[in-house]
Specification:
Elements lengths: L2 H25 L6 H8 L3 H8 L2 H21 L8 H16 L1 H10 L10 H20 L9 H20 L5 H17 L4 H11 L5
Helix pairs in contact: 1-2, 1-4, 1-6, 2-3, 4-5, 4-7, 6-8, 7-8, 8-9, 9-10
Length: 211
Amino acid sequence: MSDGWVRRQERTRRDVLDAAGAVIAEAGVDGLTMRKLAERAGVAVATLYNQFGDRDGVLVAFVSSGLDQLEIDLDAQPPVGPVETTRCLLEAFDESFSAEPEVWRPIFASLKSGPGPLGMGEVGDRVVQYIENDLAKGAADGMFAIELDVERLARHIFNTRMARLEKWAQGAIDWETYRASSRLGLELSLAAVLVDGLRSEALSRSGIGIV
């Protein structure tokens, strides 16, 4: 395959994902059909099926593209060290979601039925792996008071965050409640395993403790 063909494929994929975000913002996930998306993106319906498989494939690709950009943005920032990197990742997620709630709210409300961590499939697995790698660095640096199963903690942090996000997406809680509850849940999970000085910091960040 030539470089030109690859660039055209990448450009088509970006155009489709941009169009998907626009359709979802206007008509919700239920309004996102492959025919409507093809018309909006200026491509053949067959092209969508070839590249994404089905509508759920488009949604997963849309979320994955957002994660790609978040990782690029985080990598461009000065290193902040283990554990804080996980905080920064989740904070960056929330900033993205709050910037375009008309897009992300219906997406997360629809992903629950899919495979993988809370319906996010390989995208969820990527996030869990990112957090797990960060926690492993923290363990190597002696930041935890116990011998830690970093994979299990990473999955717990992600799953509980997504459960709260689902409640927001479905209208059960408002955005500020989601934010406060998510921050509390993350910091209490960290406080349960961090060494004393870092535990106090996590409790303070949670809003229920005083250093």
